[in-house]
Amino acid sequence: MKPTLSTLALWACFATALCSAALPPPEYQKLAHDIYKQLIEINTSFSTGATTPAAEAVAALLRSEGFPASDIQVLGAAAHKMNVVVRYHGGGQRKPLLLLAHLDVVEAKPSDWSLDPFKLTEKDGFFYGRGTIDDKAQAAIWLANLIRYKREGFRPDRDLIVALTADEEGGGPYNGAAWLVKNHRDLIDAEFALNEGGWGDMLNGKPSANNLQVSEKYVATYRFEVKNKGGHSSLPVPDNAIYRLAEALIRISKYKFPAQTNEVTKAYLEQMAKVSPESTAGLMRAAAQGSAKAIEQLADSSTALNATLRTTCVATMLDGGHAMNALPQTAGATVNCRVLPGAKPEEVLATLKRIVADAQVSITPSGEIVSGPASPLRSDLMKAASRITDTMWSGVPVVPVMVMGATDGLYLRNAGIPTYGIQGLFVEVNDFRAHGRDERLGIQQFYEGEAFLYELVKALATP
Questions:
Q1: For 218-365, CATH number?
Q2: Which of 408, 396, 265 has its CA nearest to residue 340?
Q3: In 152, 163, 249, 324, which residue has its Cα 20 to 30 A from 36's Cα atom?
Q4: Are 70 and 62 in contact (CB under 8 A)?
C-alpha cells in the first residue's frame, strides 16, 4: 500500500519525537480517517446538498460493525434532511451522555477554492475540504471512538448516544437538533451533551488553550428598509432611499454596545490571564474583578475580545433600486446581531431604533429569535478535561468560553440538556478557516483530537 501524506507525517512525528500528545492506535487512526473522508466527500451543503446520504452511510457502517439495527435511527424533518442517532448501551447507573455533531456544512463554490472542497485532500500537514473543522472532524471522531469502544468491549455506566444532525448551519424547519428535541426527545435525552464550539487555540504551532464552551451568544437578525416614491434619475431629490439607508447603517457601524462580563467570561478572563503577557493579563484580572474601565479597554483591544464582551450588530447584505435610470423606491439591508446571553431581543431592537433615529427606516426582526441559558460548569467535566489536556499538552489550561457564533447547543440547553463544546482540535488563532476558502485542519491535530475525546468520554462514562 502506498503511504499517504498523513501516514508519512505521522512516521516523521514518531521518528523525530515531535509528537506532543499520544495518538490512537494506527487501526483507529485509519478508521477515523476513512470515515472523515467519506463524510467530507458527500455534499451536505445547507442549500444545495443533502444530509440523508451521509446519515445512511453512517447507519450502514454501524450495522456492519455489529450495532443492532434497533439502536440506529435515521429520521428527520424532510426526506433530504435526515439525522442519524445511535445508542451504545451501558450499565444504566446514570443518565446517558449525548455526543452531538452536525452533518451539514456551509456552501463552498469550487471556483472559489484552490482545491476541490468536496474531496479530502492531504497537503502540507493539513486535511483540506469543506467541513474539515466544521463539523465533520468531530462527527468522524465520535463514530470512530464509538466503534472502538464496542470492539474493545468497553462497558460504560451510562448509555452513550451519538447524534449527527442536519441543518445546523442554516437552522430553519429542518434543523435536526431542534426537530429531535421536539419530536423524539426520548432518543437523545441525556444528563448532558458534548458538542462542537470548544476547539483549542494554537499560537505559532504551540497549543495555548483548550476551550470549553459553556454558553454562546444568540443570533438576532433584522431587516432595515426604506421606501419612498422614487422617480426619474435625471431629477434627483434629497430624499433618496439608498442614501437614507446608508446613513442609518453608518450610525450602526459607529455604535458600540456596552462592554460587560458575565460568569462565563469572567472565568475565561481569569484563566487567560495566566497565559497572557503581563500587560494584557493585568487588564484581564481587573476586568474579571469587575473594573468597568478594564472591561472597556479589553473590548477595544482586539476583535475577538470585542465580540466576547459586547453585543455586536453588523450589516451583512444589501439590496435596493429597480432600474439604473430610476430613483430607488426601496432600499434594504440585513443587519446580523450576536447578542450576549441575558440581553433581551426587544432591548436590542429598541437600541437599534434609538441609534438610527429615523422613522422612515423600518427595522423588523427577520425570523424567530431564540435565546438560551448558559450551562452550569460541571466539576467532573472540568476535572477530566483538565487532567487529560495536561497529560497530552503539558501546561495547557482548559478555559471556559462563551462562543461568539451559534451552535445547536442552544436548542439542547433550552430543552434542559446542558451542553458543552469541547473538541481537543487545535487551530491557529489567526488561521481559523471554518466557513471560508480552503477550510483545513492539521493532520496531527485531527488524530490528537480523536485521542483526547476517546479519553474524555471514557472518563465521563466509567463506573
A1: 3.30.70.360
A2: 265
A3: 152
A4: no
pLDDT digits (tens, 9 = 90+) for 28-53: 999 999 999 999 999 999 889 999 99
pLDDT value of position 342: 85
Buried b / exposed e over 31-52, threshold 16 CB at 10 Å, is bbbebbbbbbbbbbbbeebbbb
Grid cell locating 101:
455533531
Tell me how far apart the alpha carbons of residues 235 and 312 are, in angstroms, rounded to a whole number: 38
pLDDT of residue 20: 45
Q: Which segments of 313-414 does DSSP mark as H helices, in order? A: 345-356, 379-392, 409-414
- Whole-number pLDDT of residue 406: 86
Under a CB-based contact definition with an 8 Å cutoff, are residues 130 and 435 in contact? Answer: no
Cβ atoms of 158 and 94 within 8 Å: the answer is: yes
For 105, the grid coordinates are: 456544512
pLDDT at site 21: 61
Q: Which of 123, 137, 4, 100 is nearest to 446 (CA)?
A: 137
Domain 5-216+374-460 is found in CATH 3.40.630.10: yes
Which stretches in the chain have pLDDT values below 70? 1-21
| Rounded distance between C-alpha atoms, residue 380 and residue 376, angstroms | 12
Q: What span, in angstroms and rounded, lies between the C-alpha atoms of 171 and 308?
A: 23
What are 67's three cell numbers? 450495532
Give this prediction's pTM: 0.88
